[in-house]
Amino acid sequence: MDLNFTEEQKAFRAELRSFLEERLPERLSEKVRLGQRLTKQDYEEWHAILNEKGWLAGNWPKEHGGAGWNAVERHIFEEETTAAHAPRIVPFGLAMLGPVLQKFGSKEQQDYWLPRILNGDDWWCQGYSEPGAGSDLASVKTTAVRDGDHYVVNGQKTWTTLGQYANMIFCLVRTSKEGKPQEGISFLLVDMNDPGITVRPIVLLDGEPEVNEVFFDNVRVPVENLVGEENKGWTYAKYLLTHERTNIAGVGFANAGLANLKRIARLEQSGGRPLIEDPLFAAKIAEVEISLMAMATTNLRVVSAAAAGQAPGAESSMLKVKGTVIRQEINALTKQAVGPWAMPFVSEALEAGSNEGPVGPSYAMSATPHYLNNRKLSIYGGSNEVQKTIIAKAILEL
Amino acid sequence: MDLNFTEEQKAFRAELRSFLEERLPERLSEKVRLGQRLTKQDYEEWHAILNEKGWLAGNWPKEHGGAGWNAVERHIFEEETTAAHAPRIVPFGLAMLGPVLQKFGSKEQQDYWLPRILNGDDWWCQGYSEPGAGSDLASVKTTAVRDGDHYVVNGQKTWTTLGQYANMIFCLVRTSKEGKPQEGISFLLVDMNDPGITVRPIVLLDGEPEVNEVFFDNVRVPVENLVGEENKGWTYAKYLLTHERTNIAGVGFANAGLANLKRIARLEQSGGRPLIEDPLFAAKIAEVEISLMAMATTNLRVVSAAAAGQAPGAESSMLKVKGTVIRQEINALTKQAVGPWAMPFVSEALEAGSNEGPVGPSYAMSATPHYLNNRKLSIYGGSNEVQKTIIAKAILEL
Amino acid sequence: MNFQLTEERQMLQDGLRRYLGEAVTPQALEAAQTTGMSPEIWAGLSEMGVAGALFTEDQGGFGGAGFDLMVVFEELGRAGAVEPMLELLLAGRLVAELGDETQQEIVAQAVEGAVQLAFAHGEPASRFDLERVETRAERSGDGWTLTGRKSVVVNGAQADHIVVSARTSGDVADRDGISLFLLPKGTAGIEIRDYPLSQGGHAAEIVLDGVTLPAGALLGAEGQAFEAIETAQARATAAICADALGAMETARALTGDYLKTRKQFGQPIGKFQALQHRAADMLIEIEQARSAVINLCGHLEADRDTREIHVSATKHLVGKVARLVAEEAVQMHGGIGMTEEYDLARFARRLSMLDQRFGDATFHLGRFVRLRAA
Amino acid sequence: MNFQLTEERQMLQDGLRRYLGEAVTPQALEAAQTTGMSPEIWAGLSEMGVAGALFTEDQGGFGGAGFDLMVVFEELGRAGAVEPMLELLLAGRLVAELGDETQQEIVAQAVEGAVQLAFAHGEPASRFDLERVETRAERSGDGWTLTGRKSVVVNGAQADHIVVSARTSGDVADRDGISLFLLPKGTAGIEIRDYPLSQGGHAAEIVLDGVTLPAGALLGAEGQAFEAIETAQARATAAICADALGAMETARALTGDYLKTRKQFGQPIGKFQALQHRAADMLIEIEQARSAVINLCGHLEADRDTREIHVSATKHLVGKVARLVAEEAVQMHGGIGMTEEYDLARFARRLSMLDQRFGDATFHLGRFVRLRAA
C-alpha cells in the first residue's frame, strides 16, 4: 500500500497547474467561484482552450483525439480543474455519447460525429428519462417507427439538462413492443432543429431553467442516425450508464466547496468572533471534512483499481451515495454560514456584470441557489435509493 | 390549551411525594439509582408497600382493588416513582394479565387470581413469543390438546422476562389448526411447577439472565385455566397488546436517566474541566434534552386525550419509537460520559453488599450494562420497524 | 392540562384554513412576487380580523396569547401565504408595549389592516446577535439623528411605519444603550433597496444617512429597549416555528399523496418499505416539532430564563425537523419535487429559510447550553 | 499510489485469517475469561511471528509500518481474539524507541512470545488526557520512588513487564516532566486488582505505594517521554481502529447471513427494502471506516501535526461507524442479536468499547478542530 502519487503523476499535476494558471480565463474562474451563471459561450470557450491542448476528452483514446488518460490521471485533472474554479466540461457529448460511438458506432458515425464533439460544432443533450418513469429507464414510451429511410419519432423526454443550448440529442426510443421492455429499445441521434421538436424549459427549486422537456411530434430521423443495431439500444444505454464514470464521487467539487465554506466561516462573525471559532459550527465543518477525507480515499481506491484495469462494482454506488450526501451537507453548511444573507434572492446578481449587485457579501449570493439546486444530486443519475438497492443486492446478495 | 396540571393533580403529586419520602426504602432506591440488581424479594417488598396504600394497581378499577387512576394520574405516578428511584412495578400480573382477566375472565377466575396478584401470592410471566417467530405473534406453534378435564401442552416459549422468578405463566397456545393462524389460538394459565415444564435462562449482551426459554413437555393444565373461549385467545392477546399502555414513552425513565447523565458529566473531568463544560459533549446532552422536552409534551397530549376517553392510535407507535430512541441515546451518552470506566465489567459489583466493589466511581458501574441491555427497547414490545410500518399504514394510509 | 383548542381558536383556525385554502392561488402568488404580498389576501385577512388575534384587548386585539399565535401562523404556513403578518406581530408588539398613546394608534390601524409595519433591527454584521447594534442615534436639538445600515428588513420597503433600533450609548454589543425609533414611510435620508426573498415576500437594505427625527419618534425609554426586543423576538420565534409546522404539514400531505399515487416498477412507491419507514420518521419528527411549538407558546409569559430556554429549544428542534422534512419531501418525490411548477417547491424553500431567521439550529443549540448552564 | 497489499502482507493476512478462524473457539474464549487470554492462541500467534510484523527490523521485527499494523489488527478484530497484542504494540514501541540495550532485550523476548507487556499510563482522573499524569516519581538515592495510581491498565496483572508513566517534574497536566519506568512483574509495593473487561481481556487497577526502583528502571530521558507516548498511542489508535474494522466486517457478515436466512411474514427479512437500505448504509459506512484506517496507517510516519490530525479524524469516524454497525447489527437481528449465545454479542460489545479507549468520537472531533485551527 502506498498513498503517494508517482513522480510521473506529480509532474502531470504540475503541468496542469501551470496550464490552468496561464490559460484559464480569470473571467470564467471568477464566475465559477462566485456561483454565477455560465453562458453557452463560456463553456464553448473553455472547451476550445482544452481542445487546443488535446485535453478536452480525457477519457477518449488518442486515436479519436482524446488524451487517453487513465483513471488516476483523470482524477488529477478533476482535482486541479475544480480547485482552480474552471468550468466543468459539459459531459453529454464528451463523457456520454463519445464512448458509445467509439464502442458501438459505425466508422462513418465516428468519423463524422467525434471531431464535431471535440470542435464544439455540436452541443449534445441526453434523451433518456421520460415523464412518470423516473429511475425506471427501461419503460421507454417514445416510439420510432421505420418509414422508408427514416424513423418517425413521437413522444416526450424530460430532465434534459441544458437542452436549451443543444442542437443534437441522443435518445432511447422504442422500436419494438415484443419481449421484455429492455428488448425493443434503440439508440438514435436526433437533430434538434428538425421540424416537430419542441423544447420547454423546466424551472427548478433555485429558479433556474436548467432542465427541459423535449417533445417529438412526427420527427423524421434518417436511418443512418441509428447507433448500432435496432432494438439493441438498452445495451448501449447500460454501457453508457455503467461505463466507468469518472468523478462520480465529486471529490473535486466537494473540496472546492469545503474550502469556500471555511473561507466564509472565517469572514462571518457570530457573537463577536469569526463563525469558524464557534465550537458547534466548527464541529459541523469538521465532521463533513473528516467524512470527505475518508471518501476521497475510497475514491482513490476505486480510481487506482480502475487504472489497473479492474471494473468497479457496487463501489460506484457507494461513492455516488456518500459523495452526494457530503456535497449536499457542504451546501447546507454554506447556506447556514451566510446567515440571514441566504434569504435575499436577487436573480440578476447571478449574471456577471449585471447592474443589480448581490445583497450582502458576494460570497453569499449563490449559497441558497446551490443548496437548492444540489438537492438533485441524490435524485438524478440513479437516485440514492436505487443505489442502495444495488449495493444491498450486489454485496449482501439479497 | 393549557400546559398546567389541575390543582387536584398537583395535590396528588404532593401526596405521592411525601408517600415516597416516607415509605420507599432507601436500600431499594439506592440500588435503583446505582443500577444494581433487584432481587425477587426487593420487588415483592415494594409491591407490598404500594398494595397497602391501594396504589399497586393504578390502572385497575376500584372494585378489583385497583387505584382506578386515569391516564394523567398514572402518568404522575410514573413521573414521581421514577424520579424517586423506586423499583418499577413488575408488569406481568398487574399491567398485563389483570386487565385481561377483568375483561374476559370468569367470575371464579377473577375472584381467585386478582387478589393473588395484588397480594404477591403469584409471580406471573408471559408466554407469548416463540423461537423463530419474532414480531409475528400469530404463528403460535405451542399446542394444547384437550384430554378430559385437561389440556396437554407441548412446545416452547421464549424471551420470557423474569421467568426464573415466576410460579405462573399466561400462554398463547394453539388449540386448532383450522382457518387463519389467528383463529385457533387460546389463552391459558399454566402453573410453572407442573411436571413437564423446564426453564432455561438466556444470557443477554450485558451478561444478565433476564429472559428465559420455557419448554412444555406434555404439561397437563386443568380446563378451568382457560381464559374466555377456546380459539378466541388472539382477541384477548390483542386486547392486552393494544390495551392502553401507560408509560410506553418511558418519560420517567428518560428524565431520571438524563438527570443521572448530567450528574456524571459534572463529576467527570476532561481537559481539566468538568465534562459538562465541553461544548460538544454539552451539545449532545442538550440535543437529547430538547428532544425529550418535546416528546414529554407529545406524551402528555396522548395521556390527556386518553384521560378524556380517546383511544390513542398511531401516536402510541410514535411514542414507542421516539421514547426508546431517546432512552437509548441517554444510555449511550452515559456510557460515553464515564470514559474508560465503562470498560471494567465486574458483575459482582452489581450485587448490593458484595465484597467486590466497583472499579472506579460507583456511578460508572452500570453504564455499560444499561447501554447494552437497553438495546432491547427498540426490539421488544413490537420492534421499532414494526411500529414504523404501523405509522405509515395508519396515517399515510399506505 | 388541556390540549384542545378553545372554541374561539377552533373557529379562527377553521376560518383561516378555509379562506387561505381558496385565496392563496398561483395567481395571487405570482402577483405577490413583485410587491412582496397580495393586497387582496392582506385585505381578506384584515376583514377576518386575523391581526386582532395577535394582540391583547388592551392592545386593541382580542387574543395575544401564545396559542393564538400558534393557530394563526400554523395556517399561514400551511397555505404558504407570504403576507407580512410576522412583521406586524414583531413591530406591533414593540409599539404596543413601549409606545405612548399617539404611537399606539398605529397598532390599532395595523390591526385593522390600514397600515403595514416592519422592524429594522438586523445589520450587516449582526447575524443572530440581538444585542449587536452599530447604527447610532445622536441627540440633535430636540430630536435625533440616525446613522447606520439595516439589513434584510422584511417588508421594509412596503411598511408604512418602521421600528428602527439604534444605539444611543454603550459598546457595539452591549445590551444597555439600545433605543427604538418609529419612522414613517418616506422619512428623508432613508435609502431603501427592495428585493425578493427565497421564501417569498420582500425585504430591504436600509441605509440611514443622518436621518433626522423629532423627539416624538423615540419609542419607549432611551437605551432600554433590549428587553422588549428580546420578548418580541421570542413571540416572533414562536410564530415562525408555528408557520414552519404548518408548512411541514403541507409538505407531508403532498408527499403522502404522491407516495400513494405515483407508480414505479409496477406499484405505488408508497408500497416500498424503505419509503414507508422514512415517511414514518418524518411524521414522528413533525409531532416532535408540534410539541416543541406548544412548549414555546405555552411559556411565552413565563419568566425570562424559562421563556428563552424554550425559545432556543424550540427553534433548534423545529429548525432541524424543517430541514429533514423539506429534504425528505423533495427526495421522496424525486425529480418532480425539484420543479417550480409543483406546489412542494415553495414549501421546501420556505422551510429551508427557517434557519436563516432568528437563529439557526446550531446557534440555538449553543444558546440552550449557555442558558441551561447559567 | 497503490492500494494492493504486498505479497508478504497478503500472506500474513491469509495465514492469520486461517489460523484465527480455527483457533478462536468458544472453548478458547471461555478459558480466556478468567485469565484475559488464551495461552494456546498467544503461543500460536508467536509461532506465526505475528508480533514481528509490529516492529521494524532494527527493533527485532520484520515490519512496523502502518499497513503492517492494519493487516494484523484487522484480523484480530475479525476473529474477535482477546489476546493482548495491542499492549505489546504500545509498550513494546516505547521500550524499543527509548530503551537502552538491556531494556530492548525485552522487546525481542516479547516478539518471540516469551514475555507479555502492558503500559500503565491512564489514571483515575486522566480520562483521555494524555498529558495528565499525577503519579509521581522522586529520586531516592541512586534510584526512584513511585507513588500514585494507574487505572484500567489492560493486561496489567498478566504482564511480565509494565511500562509506567510518572511525573518527575512540572504541573499535573504539563507535557514536560513525564518520565517512563520499566517495572518487572512482582516489584514490591505494587498492588494490583485484576478484572475482566466488557470487550474481553482483562485490565487492572494498580496502586504504586512508594515503589522503589533502581536507576536502570528509567526508560529514556527523564521528563521527556510525552512525545514518545503520543507517537506510540497514534500507532495504537491505528491498531484499535483496524481491529474495529475487522469486527465490523464480521458483524456485517453475520447480519448479511441472517438477513438472507431468517424468515418472517413468509419471506427472508432481507427482502424488506427498509432493511436492505439500512444494510447498504452499514456497508457504505464500513467502507468509510476502511478508508479512514488507511489514511491513518499511511500517515503514521508523517510530521506530528499531520499524523495527529489523522489520528483524530480516524478515531472520530471509526468510533461513529462502530457504534452504528454494532447497534444496527443487533437491531436487524432482533432478539437473537441480544443474546450471549449468538456470536454477534462479543463483536457488538467489542465495537461498543472502541470509544472508551484512546478517546471517543466526540473527544476526537473537538481535538480535530483544535489541531486544524492550530
TrEMBL record, chains A, B:
<dbReference type="InterPro" id="IPR013786">
    <property type="entry name" value="AcylCoA_DH/ox_N"/>
</dbReference>
<dbReference type="InterPro" id="IPR006091">
    <property type="entry name" value="Acyl-CoA_Oxase/DH_mid-dom"/>
</dbReference>
<feature type="domain" description="Acyl-CoA oxidase/dehydrogenase middle">
    <location>
        <begin position="125"/>
        <end position="219"/>
    </location>
</feature>
<dbReference type="Pfam" id="PF00441">
    <property type="entry name" value="Acyl-CoA_dh_1"/>
</dbReference>
<dbReference type="Pfam" id="PF02770">
    <property type="entry name" value="Acyl-CoA_dh_M"/>
</dbReference>
<dbReference type="InterPro" id="IPR037069">
    <property type="entry name" value="AcylCoA_DH/ox_N_sf"/>
</dbReference>
<feature type="domain" description="Acyl-CoA dehydrogenase/oxidase C-terminal">
    <location>
        <begin position="231"/>
        <end position="396"/>
    </location>
</feature>
<feature type="domain" description="Acyl-CoA dehydrogenase/oxidase N-terminal">
    <location>
        <begin position="6"/>
        <end position="121"/>
    </location>
</feature>
<dbReference type="Pfam" id="PF02771">
    <property type="entry name" value="Acyl-CoA_dh_N"/>
</dbReference>
<dbReference type="InterPro" id="IPR009075">
    <property type="entry name" value="AcylCo_DH/oxidase_C"/>
</dbReference>
<dbReference type="InterPro" id="IPR052161">
    <property type="entry name" value="Mycobact_Acyl-CoA_DH"/>
</dbReference>
<keyword id="KW-0285">Flavoprotein</keyword>
<keyword id="KW-0274">FAD</keyword>
<protein>
    <submittedName>
        <fullName>Alkylation response protein AidB-like acyl-CoA dehydrogenase</fullName>
    </submittedName>
</protein>
<dbReference type="InterPro" id="IPR046373">
    <property type="entry name" value="Acyl-CoA_Oxase/DH_mid-dom_sf"/>
</dbReference>
<comment type="similarity">
    <text>Belongs to the acyl-CoA dehydrogenase family.</text>
</comment>
<dbReference type="InterPro" id="IPR009100">
    <property type="entry name" value="AcylCoA_DH/oxidase_NM_dom_sf"/>
</dbReference>
<dbReference type="InterPro" id="IPR036250">
    <property type="entry name" value="AcylCo_DH-like_C"/>
</dbReference>
<keyword id="KW-0560">Oxidoreductase</keyword>
TrEMBL record, chains C, D:
<keyword id="KW-0560">Oxidoreductase</keyword>
<dbReference type="InterPro" id="IPR009075">
    <property type="entry name" value="AcylCo_DH/oxidase_C"/>
</dbReference>
<dbReference type="Pfam" id="PF02771">
    <property type="entry name" value="Acyl-CoA_dh_N"/>
</dbReference>
<dbReference type="InterPro" id="IPR036250">
    <property type="entry name" value="AcylCo_DH-like_C"/>
</dbReference>
<comment type="similarity">
    <text>Belongs to the acyl-CoA dehydrogenase family.</text>
</comment>
<feature type="domain" description="Acyl-CoA dehydrogenase/oxidase N-terminal">
    <location>
        <begin position="6"/>
        <end position="105"/>
    </location>
</feature>
<feature type="domain" description="Acyl-CoA dehydrogenase/oxidase C-terminal">
    <location>
        <begin position="234"/>
        <end position="352"/>
    </location>
</feature>
<keyword id="KW-0285">Flavoprotein</keyword>
<dbReference type="InterPro" id="IPR013786">
    <property type="entry name" value="AcylCoA_DH/ox_N"/>
</dbReference>
<protein>
    <recommendedName>
        <fullName>Acyl-CoA dehydrogenase</fullName>
    </recommendedName>
</protein>
<keyword id="KW-0274">FAD</keyword>
<dbReference type="InterPro" id="IPR006091">
    <property type="entry name" value="Acyl-CoA_Oxase/DH_mid-dom"/>
</dbReference>
<feature type="domain" description="Acyl-CoA oxidase/dehydrogenase middle">
    <location>
        <begin position="118"/>
        <end position="207"/>
    </location>
</feature>
<dbReference type="InterPro" id="IPR037069">
    <property type="entry name" value="AcylCoA_DH/ox_N_sf"/>
</dbReference>
<dbReference type="InterPro" id="IPR009100">
    <property type="entry name" value="AcylCoA_DH/oxidase_NM_dom_sf"/>
</dbReference>
<dbReference type="InterPro" id="IPR046373">
    <property type="entry name" value="Acyl-CoA_Oxase/DH_mid-dom_sf"/>
</dbReference>
<dbReference type="Pfam" id="PF00441">
    <property type="entry name" value="Acyl-CoA_dh_1"/>
</dbReference>
<dbReference type="Pfam" id="PF02770">
    <property type="entry name" value="Acyl-CoA_dh_M"/>
</dbReference>
